[in-house]
Amino acid sequence: MNILKSFLLLIIVSPSALFSMNRNRNLLDAVRNGELQTVQELINAGADLNQADNDGWTPLYCAAWKGHTQIAQALINAGADLNQADNDGWTPLYGAAWNDRTQIAQALINAGANVNQVDNNGWTPLYCAAVYGRTQIAQALITAGANVNQAADNGETPEQVAERRGHTQIVELIRKQRFGRVKFAAKRK
Known about the structure:
Number of domains: 2
Number of strands: 0
Distance between the termini: 72 Å
Largest sheet: none
Structural class: mainly alpha
Radius of gyration: 20 Å
Mean pLDDT: 87
């Protein structure tokens, strides 16, 4: 049955549409493989910059996840959607935060990525950075206006999760933002 559907699709779909589908698949493959020159050629040929795979991964999300800084910048410069989420609600900024890709996170922030976008579990990019101890990314997000008080669906704020996981530098960054100072005296009983 699948062979018949494929054959009918080939008959119905025009050759230019087939070329376009191939070009879009090749863009995601080139990004996954870190092939900057091929990515640039496909961008110039008009590949869909926001075409997602079955998991919702776009070329920009993939570049952020894998740490392909030059490819991410090329996609940003070409106009890729900075805030297109995957099936879990994660944007390229989450992929950068999860994998500690500071340069890519900063490029996304500088280009206007939403620093407060919420995923399917109520996480923000700052919450993600707090969970995994990504201090530089947390600093960049806070500087860009990330909401330090936004709780995830579990009710926990970035400060609380950072404190629970022992990421004291992130706790201090958040407190500095909230209270205007860096160091805190020990809690008094």
